[in-house]
């Protein structure tokens, strides 16, 4: 089978890492893998190292999160040109399946290969994030025009797409992570290190984390705090957010570690991983990485997070989304080392079964195979 994978970013966010996780499994099946993504970033380099062919496409940049009117106007103006690029790639590679790894590419894909279920390559859309408002309606119309199959990273992001899934429904496939060795950590008698790891962006909640850190530091001065990450996806708002975080951290024992590819090594330094995501976040990959590394995880009970974290069993869920509630929850975790160890052990076991990389690959390959091998008529002229 021949797969054309379309990605809206060239930098490595969670969705792009999920795609890279899939390429070796596709190669094991003997499939031909062709990746198209914006130039720049590490996605192209990593995909080539995994023996995929890579072509550049022009998609954006646009603001992350809420779009400006200028973004929307440029997006609509860019769609026909991007559709032409996708049409050219489909003509060159003659794929059996087009795997769309982000909603920004759906309108252009619909223009390029509309009615794909009957005339040309089938389309599979992988939804990693919550869609709403005009973005949801535009993506929904594109999915209907493509008769696309849909796979979602959790039920939270699947629900808004249900009106557009046709008779096929939506398959939910949770992300998977590889096994990690269990590191030794300092005893509870020394410093207590609490960290937030991930892309620097308002929806990731680092500001709430620092506000909670200030409250906690007043009663537990042995705590040390870490923010590991950097802005991605050419987002000017995130750069302003970084300056806000530096101001919030003034006078606190906070380390800004920057971006790292060694998430495993960074997790090994932590006693508690905090994921203070906003209510729109789905199932952050770092939670599953924390599970696999045996690090206790604390997160706000919002978005898709309760689908992967069971409060009091595999992690701490904070119901009230406020810095004060987060600070008191961190203090409770600090004072309960046996409970932290027990939950971390159960979470690690769950990572090895329900959230393993092998399970994720098998589910995704099964879904791709089911939608990519259906009989199809010759592609329309020019496709």
Provide structural commentary.
The protein is of the alpha/beta class and 383 residues long. It folds into two domains: 2-176 and 357-372, Rossmann fold (3-Layer(aba) Sandwich); 192-353, 3-Layer(aba) Sandwich (Rossmann fold), CATH 3.40.50.2000. The chain is built from 13 helices and 13 strands. It has helices at residues 14-28, 43-49, 69-93, 106-113, 133-146, 155-158, 206-219, 236-248, 263-267, 285-293, 323-334, 337-353, 357-372; strands spanning 2-6, 32-37, 53-56, 97-100, 122-127, 149-152, 170-172, 192-197, 223-228, 254-258, 272-275, 297-300, 316-318. It is globular. Residues 374-383 have low confidence and may be disordered.
Features:
383 residues, alpha/beta, Rossmann fold, disordered C terminus
Topology:
Layout: E1 2-6, H1 14-28, E2 32-37, H2 43-49, E3 53-56, H3 69-93, E4 97-100, H4 106-113, E5 122-127, H5 133-146, E6 149-152, H6 155-158, E7 170-172, E8 192-197, H7 206-219, E9 223-228, H8 236-248, E10 254-258, H9 263-267, E11 272-275, H10 285-293, E12 297-300, E13 316-318, H11 323-334, H12 337-353, H13 357-372
Parallel strand pairs: 1-2, 1-4, 2-3, 4-5, 5-6, 6-7, 8-9, 8-11, 9-10, 11-12, 12-13
Helix pairs in contact: 1-13, 3-4, 4-5, 7-8, 7-11, 10-12
């Amino acid at each position: 089978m021949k797969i054309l994978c379309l990605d809206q970013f060239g930098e490595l966010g969670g969705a792009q890492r999920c795609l890279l996780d899939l390429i070796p499994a596709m190669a094991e099946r003997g499939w031909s893998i062709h990746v198209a993504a914006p130039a720049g970033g590490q996605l192209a380099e990593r995909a080539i190292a995994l023996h995929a062919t890579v072509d550049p496409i022009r998609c954006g940049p646009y603001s992350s999160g809420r779009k400006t009117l200028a973004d929307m106007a440029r997006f609509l103006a860019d769609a026909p040109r991007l559709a032409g690029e996708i049409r050219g790639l489909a003509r060159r590679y003659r794929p059996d399946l087009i795997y769309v790894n982000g909603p920004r590419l759906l309108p252009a894909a619909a223009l390029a290969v509309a009615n794909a279920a009957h005339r040309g390559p089938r389309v599979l859309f992988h939804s990693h994030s919550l869609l709403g408002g005009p973005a949801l309606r535009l993506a929904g119309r594109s999915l209907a025009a493509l008769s696309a199959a849909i796979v979602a990273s959790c039920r939270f992001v699947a629900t808004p797409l249900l009106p557009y899934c046709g008779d096929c429904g939506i398959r939910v496939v949770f992300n998977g992570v590889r096994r990690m060795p269990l590191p030794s950590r300092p005893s509870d008698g020394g410093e207590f290190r609490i960290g937030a790891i991930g892309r620097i962006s308002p929806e990731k909640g680092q500001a709430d984390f620092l506000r909670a850190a200030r409250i906690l530091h007043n009663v537990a001065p042995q705590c040390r705090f870490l923010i590991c990450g950097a802005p991605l996806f050419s987002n000017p708002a995130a750069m302003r957010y970084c300056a806000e975080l530096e101001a919030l951290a003034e006078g606190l024992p906070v380390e800004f570690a920057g971006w790292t590819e060694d998430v495993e090594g960074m997790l090994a330094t932590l006693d508690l991983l905090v994921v203070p995501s906003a209510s729109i976040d789905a199932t952050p990959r770092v939670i599953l990485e924390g599970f696999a590394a045996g690090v206790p995880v604390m997160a706000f009970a919002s978005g898709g997070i309760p689908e992967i974290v069971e409060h009091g069993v595999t992690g701490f869920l904070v119901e009230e989304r406020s810095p004060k509630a987060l600070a008191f929850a961190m203090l409770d975790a600090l004072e309960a080392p046996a409970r932290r160890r027990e939950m971390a052990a159960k979470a690690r076991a769950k990572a090895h079964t329900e959230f393993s990389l092998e399970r994720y690959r098998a589910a995704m390959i099964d879904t791709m195979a089911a939608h990519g091998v259906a009989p199809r008529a010759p592609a329309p002229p020019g496709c």
